[in-house]
Amino acid sequence: MNKLVVLSDIACEIVEKNVTPVLADSATQLVFGDGDVDAEVVFIGEAPGKKEDEMGRPFVGAAGKLLNEMLASIGLERNKVYITNIVKYRPPENRDPSTDEKKAFWPYLVRQLDVIKPKLVVTLGRHSMDYFLPTVKIGQVHGEPQAVQLGERQQMILPLYHPAAALYNGGLRQTLFEDFARIPIILKQTT
């Protein structure tokens, strides 16, 4: 299986099926994902922002710069991970994605993960965490790996605060870096 081709087909299907037409009409383009399709780690945010919508890549704005800094802090290069969002179009005015919008994109996200087959999925913020861990609050589980059933396979999830939260709340920055530092340890423990 050529993973790039399969992922490209999934992205084309989102456009062809006009998933979330209101978002599609207000966005510049689909922001599907970026990075190594054989990555051990997939990072999932909530939705593209203005910069991401302009460039067609996830996490290229201020939150992306912080994500790059955190990756460097654990010796990971951005091109060695895969980065995406649960919602693939920018919501107008950077508003939070709605429950219906997240629900519409969920099957495509699961298919992305089925193709990449990462050892670890790192959710960035509550919007991406909610679908994997719907009954918990991020403040209770951030930095704690969780095994979830994803289709027919078990997937290790690491819920983290969104990097944007650390930009607005300096107190979260240290917590985010401490939680992030657990990634290499979890990868070594995950087979």
Spell out the key features of this protein:
alpha/beta; 15% strand; single chain; 191 residues; globular
Task: Give a quick summary of the entry.
By secondary structure, this protein is α/β, with parallel strands linked by helices. The protein has helices at 3-16, 21-26, 50-55, 62-73, 99-116, 126-132, 138-141, 163-168, 170-180, 183-189, and strands at 34-35, 41-45, 82-85, 120-124, 146-150, 153-160.
Tell me what the structure shows.
- The protein is α/β, with parallel strands linked by helices and 191 residues long.
- The protein has one domain: Uracil-DNA Glycosylase, subunit E.
- It is built from 10 helices and 6 strands, in the order ααββααβαβααββααα.
- A 6-stranded mixed sheet has the order 1-3-2-4-6-5, with helices on both faces.
- It is globular, with a radius of gyration of 15 Å.
- The two termini are 22 Å apart.
- The model has no long low-confidence stretch (mean pLDDT 93).
Mean pLDDT: 93
Give the terminus-to-terminus CA distance.
22 Å
**N-to-C SSE string, H for helix and E for strand:** HHEEHHEHEHHEEHHH
What portion of the residues fall into strands of 2 or more residues? Answer: 15-25%
Structural class computed from helices and strand pairing: alpha/beta
Enter the CATH topology name.
Answer: Uracil-DNA Glycosylase, subunit E
CATH class: Alpha Beta
Calculate Rg over CA atoms.
15 Å
**DSSP, total strands:** 6
Task: Please count the helical segments.
Answer: 10
* Neighbour order of strands in the largest sheet: 1-3-2-4-6-5
CATH homologous superfamily heading: Uracil-DNA glycosylase-like domain
The global form is globular
